[in-house]
Amino acid sequence: MNNVIIGTAGHVDHGKTCLIRALTGMETDRLKEEKKRGITIELGFAEMLNSHGRHIGIIDVPGHERFVRNMLAGIGGIDLVLLVVAADEGVMPQTTEHFEIIKMLNIRKGIVVLTKVDLVDKDWLDLVEEDIKNLVKGTFLEEAPIVSVSAHTGQNIEELKRIILQMVQNVDKRKTDSTLLRIPIDRVFTMEGFGTVITGTLMEGSVSVGSEVQIYPGNRIAKVRNLQVHGETVESAYAGQRTAVNLVNVKKEEIKRGDILAAKGSLKQTMMLDVKIRMFDDSPRTLINGSRLHLYYGSSEALCKAVLLDAEALKSGEGGYAQLRLEEEIAVKKGDRFIIRFYSPMETIGGGVILDANPVKHKRFRKEVLDALAVKEGGDERAIIEQTIKEGGKTLTGCRELAHKLGKTREEFLVDIENLASEGKVIKLTEDLCVHQDYINLVQERANSILSEYHSRNPISQGMQKGEFRKKLSDYLFLDDPKMADLLLRHMIDAEYLRDSNSLIALPSFKVEYKGEHLDMQKRLEKQYLDAGYQVPELDEAIALEKDKNLARQMVEALGEEGVLKRLTYQYYMHNTHWEQAMKLFRQHIEINGKITLGEYRDLLNTSRKYAVLILEYLDDRKITKLVDDARVLR
């Protein structure tokens, strides 16, 4: 079912509430003060029943300038707007302000409703209609129907209903996947016997009884006990419905208007937003870089500082990129619309769209930053996805989080990934982690730099120890998780950009080349170990007579890597000839006796206890043998 939310906008006392009562039969003014003063202060809600089987909710918003904040809480996320103008008064200040707001919120469908037509004659009505046409010229309402009605006499109310039903046929369907659940909370109260209840417009996704949800900002997890849609108890609610959610595990005092009820883990809190701002055509103020503002989004408000990224100031009708630095954490998504009001005096001056809900801090007038924002604002879907992956790759952000950032389900995002991967633009490191090829190029450049320097300083080493290489790469990329560095390393090895040999990492083109002095040293050291037999020297002792101790140490390690020497510990190597003989004696004894003691092995080797222990502990460490009582047996 396609659910539709209709919002009203217009000057105070222009008949919005009476119009809704005529359309729905419901009274939306519920507060004593509203009924006493005859004006709407808080948001009101009604359902327009129809024979088309659609849920059509109507939001009644305040028109008085003192309650613009309340108006903003209700107008976001609607599908169709009724711009209400009283025929006896015509276009008034709040008519213009509300119209600027709904233009900024990118509402694309609407109807102009002239109310109280029973109070005026035709000539006056024609003048008012002309004013309205001038107001809406060049906007989404330029071709919209203008319907003259009287809630008092019922004139044209049925015609308005018909037009509404006709227009909502083509309203875009909202996504209903439960992982996208998001409800900006506009009311919080307690019901006796039930507990905490929140209400709001279900902007996207769906929610069911028994679901676990999260309250943002913050990490409060609650469970859905009951659901109501327009006063009827339901098992599930879907995008486009006015919804009341009865929550357990959370107190009323822990939630406030402006918080977001959403799927667990679906949002990421932020202190900064990258945005495109556009000033109202008749804005009374110039927005100067660094100005303090009131930011209105969803049903909430926050204070922020506007850092203009491509201008020193924005005047009436002008637009530009900005980074909003917030004074408290909020949770929003890319594509969300917002309104800004001057800090003091409180005047509505413009609005815009969120291009990145979790950006890094930017410096002003940076071409690469402005180019990226231009893609996020006006690029096609594939370009936006690629740009998001490109930026997310720098922090190795998972696919699920990137999907949430783009307002997509994980499944939708993975399809996009496969398409980009087939074009060679994206690399999948795991099922939930992808990076842009530009990032892989950066990683490979750094890997090449690290290893080229190492090979230059260690010409006879087969490669850098894997742990050392991983740490150097992690430090450069600011990776705290060793698993992430391992994933990048594994990709480079699989792509044959790096060579992995016995946990030594090298460039594929590197080869050990011994020069004359290297060959002489190699012969000396090999002879020393060959002559030592089983009584192997410590490494420092073996290289003591060599002038270049560092090179000599590398030579011993290289002989170990080549299989000439067998490395027993960090300090002890044995010539492979003696190692093979030691293993032959070991196997023969085990085959006959099934076990061997330290003393027996010492006697077989005709050496001291120290060197027999070296070999046996090496076998223990490699899980070849184990000590049972006082003898070794095979595992």
Structure description:
The chain is of the alpha+beta class. It has five domains: 4-170, P-loop containing nucleotide triphosphate hydrolases (Rossmann fold), CATH 3.40.50; 178-263, Elongation Factor Tu (Ef-tu), domain 3 (Beta Barrel); 272-370, Beta Barrel (Elongation Factor Tu (Ef-tu), domain 3), CATH 2.40.30; 379-513, Winged helix-like DNA-binding domain superfamily/Winged helix DNA-binding domain (Arc Repressor Mutant, subunit A, Orthogonal Bundle); 516-635, Arc Repressor Mutant, subunit A. 35% of the residues lie in helices and 27% in strands. It has 19 helices and 33 strands. The strands form nine sheets. It has a six-stranded mixed β-sheet. Helix 18 (598-605) packs across helix 19. The two termini are 66 Å apart.
CATH architecture of the largest domain: 3-Layer(aba) Sandwich
- Main β-sheet, spatial strand arrangement: 2-3-1-4-5-6
| CATH fold-level name of the largest domain | Rossmann fold
Per CATH, the superfamily of the largest domain is: P-loop containing nucleotide triphosphate hydrolases
Shape: elongated
Task: Please report the number of helical segments.
Answer: 19
